[in-house]
Amino acid sequence: MGGDDRPALPRRREPDLSGLAMFTMDSAGRLTSWSLTAAGMFGREAAAVVGRHLSEVLLTGPGQDSLVERALAEVASGRAWTTTVAGGSLGEGRFAVRCEPDGSHGGVLVLIERAWPQPSPAWLRDAAERIGRTLDLYQTAAEVIDVAVPGFADSAGLYVTDRLLVADEFVSAKPGTGVVVRRLAARLAGQPVEATNDLLPPGEVLYLAEGSRRLQAISTGQPVLFDRSDEMGPEQLARQSRVYLEQAAAGYTFLAVPLAARGAVVGCAVFGRSPGSPGFSPGEVTLALELASRAALALDNARLYDRERRTAQALQRGLMPGLPQIPPGLEVAQKFLPVGDSVVGGDWHDIVPLPGGQAVLIVGDAMGHGPEAAAVMVQLRTAAHILAGRALPPGEILRSLDSIVAQLPGVPSFATCITTVIDPARGSCLAAQAGHLPPVLVRPGGQTEVLDLPTGLPLGLGADSFDPIEVPFPPGTTLALYTDGLVENRSRPIEGGLAALCDALSTELSKPGRDLDEACEAVARRLREGGEDDATLVLVRIRQPAGADAGG
């Protein structure tokens, strides 16, 4: 071959050592060697620094001499020691420092690497992506703190006005007064989350008195720089652990920024930097404000969601029936299966004891499901309970409910209902229904019978009467009342659903030793597959006399 046709090899990249420096010192902290990289990074030649103490050459800032003492003590014990320190005489920015035993000379080997001078624009973008991933208030606060420590600060705390959480009120501090806040989250660099939460518990309520820098940030809506002497008195410091006190030594600097969302200040975020970190530059204050703005919106979204969730839970507790009073002669089991995520809907059932051991058992179904149906349901359930307590016949109870439904304001509505009076002493059941599906009787041997009752019109359509029918109901026989959501869906007509219900009741109630609650649960789950509406199943049985044969 003519000439050199070999492909050119890629040029080997030399390591970039401009951000790394190395030197050694003796056990007393005096410099014993000074590399060319150290000279290049700090602009001082070896002749000017060797023999001098490190605190005189580099770590000259407030509190940094204690860092040197700690490093020497750790290395003397045979351990390496690392920390992050402010620039100061080191230069602009932050520096990662590692001290380890120098085996060849019996002193200390020090490696210093330049860290970023301030968070990059990408840090704020990444932080925004990590905040607000859930709608849990405390989890959202923890996400904010986690992106701030240690990437932006050595400690951080998030506070919201307590009145906002408990009463949904935005409170502005009046001159001469303080404000009550609640700590949502806090972090200390180098400390496990659990340890920090023990020191600074999430949910702790604090009072910010007049003159507090955090209160100043909340009341003015402006960032505030301060040190620890502005913020904590001896009684508060006394209850902090030794580790926390060491991290919060003299020279700690803090930045409090307001949390403003939707035109109102909801609290404040406090970021802290130790003596080994640089103070907050104007650019970093701007970054903190931007982070706080995004955090405040995420926190307020979580607060609003939490408020709606608590409201829904309170309503649900009010709408759900209480524990029924079941007469001694009866066994009753019930199962309600809401559609989707609803906890309450249009279905309801109730048991009202009467004198002489009798009981009124009612099952109803307001049109639809969800909050609108629940609003109709709760009115009907309350009215039915009062009417049943007056020992009215089933037909009269239904006529009164029909009148109530017809007068309900808002969208047109109707409901179906079945009302029964169980008499254990006579072994009978008196039943009337308004557009409802017929009940099913299950004999002790498992035979089933769909009762043929006058159907009647649904409640709200102005029916003239609801005729009751009395049927024998001997001890050991089970009566099943239910709503159409249990037996009807798009793929199964009511006739097929009724047949499936009878089969399931016969199978489950015939099992030896089968508990009524277990049978009710099993039948409801079996029939509910593919259901598209709220479903209710209630089973009632007159107890067998002691020693009686339960067989068919």
Describe the structure.
- The structure is a single chain.
- The protein has 552 residues and is α+β, with helices and mostly antiparallel strands.
- It folds into three domains: 20-114, Beta-Lactamase, CATH 3.30.450; 121-311, 2-Layer Sandwich (Beta-Lactamase); 320-542, 4-Layer Sandwich (Phosphatase 2c, domain 1), CATH 3.60.40.10.
- It has 16 helices and 21 strands.
- The strands form four sheets. It has a six-stranded antiparallel sheet.
- Helix 6 runs antiparallel to helix 12, helix 13 (371-389) packs antiparallel against helix 14 and helix 15 (494-509) packs antiparallel against helix 16 (516-528).
- Mean pLDDT is 79; it is low at 1-17 and 229-250.
CATH topology of the largest domain: Phosphatase 2c, domain 1
- Strand arrangement within the widest β-sheet reads 8-7-6-11-10-9
Strand content: 25-35%
Oligomer: single chain
Cα-atom radius of gyration? 38 Å
Q: How many β-strands, per DSSP? A: 21
CATH class type of the largest domain: Alpha Beta
- In total, the number of domains comes to 3
Instruction: Work out the helicity level.
Output: 25-40%
Quick gist of this model?
This protein has 552 residues and is α+β, with helices and mostly antiparallel strands. It has helices spanning 36-42, 46-49, 54-57, 64-76, 121-130, 137-148, 162-167, 193-199, 213-220, 234-238, 242-247, 282-319, 371-389, 394-406, 494-509, 516-528, and strands spanning 20-25, 31-34, 81-86, 94-102, 107-114, 155-161, 179-188, 205-208, 224-227, 253-261, 264-273, 330-337, 347-353, 359-366, 415-423, 428-434, 440-442, 448-450, 469-472, 478-482, 535-542.
